[in-house]
Amino acid sequence: MTASRLPQIVTALAIGATLSAGSVPAASAAPAYTEYVALGDSYSADATLTQITTQFVPEGCVQSSRDYPKQVAAALNVPVFRDATCSSAKTVDMVGSQSPLVGPPNPPQFDRLTPTTDLVTVGIGGNDIDLMSAALRCGSPTAFGSPCKDRWTINGVDKISVNIANAQAKIVGTLDGVRERSPRARILLVNFMAGVTPGVSCYPMVPIADGDALWLADKLIELNAMLASAASQVGVELVDTYSGSLGHDACQPPGVRWVEGLIPFSADPPGLAVPLHPNQLGADFQARSVLAAVND
């Protein structure tokens, strides 16, 4: 399959339990790809406070030693692999250095691309629209109302929705930039898992007001729809991690949830966690979703 193939949405619901449970497939004997580069933000770095690695990026990127790109690279037995993913990354960090909160900068992520790169995953966009920063400030002393939504709605206009619409050109530019630098590459745009599920709130387990939980779920759907549109516009594949992750949101108990809540602790693996980010179960599911797309 070439990078010019019309995009397809790889829905985990459609292929059943193969993606929703079980381990990542073992490495193939003969590599189908020779040079894999992973680009993206904290949802691709699977940001962690217990499994940080500096193999590919500075410590401030809080990149996990078991993020989905590393699992994909291992399963595909790729000879050359570079993981540029970094927490808080935006599309501008593809072409410019990013300065994490601590430590040295992460070089432009596009610097890892070469003309011989033949597989690229991209997971970006959440920080461009300010959704994560909004969600992290949505903690509420009560379950009633929608204070976070109200704060982001000015004169009846939802600022996050405006940001989502404006971000499509940035995503398209990113995908075009990958294709320009690595014309042989198969490009997969990976969307965002369902950290919040429509109609599901669990105050005070996740201390976000019920109205804001609904609002965040709606914004996530809007974001993923924009990513699908961008993928279609450029002609790359979209890997849908959202559909198969429904029911594994932050409101679910340990062992079931794939995204942690506002309380910075995880059972998978045990220890401090990055709020509202994938735990190891979520990273494993992302890896299975990408591998299902690659092997299709």
UniProtKB/TrEMBL annotation:
GO terms for molecular function: triacylglycerol lipase activity. GO terms for biological process: triglyceride catabolic process. The active site is at residues 42, 277. Residues 38-283 form the SGNH hydrolase-type esterase domain. Disulfide bonds join 61-86, 138-148, 202-251. Residues 1-29 form the signal peptide. Keywords: Disulfide bond, Hydrolase, Signal. The keyword Disulfide bond applies. This is SGNH/GDSL hydrolase family protein.
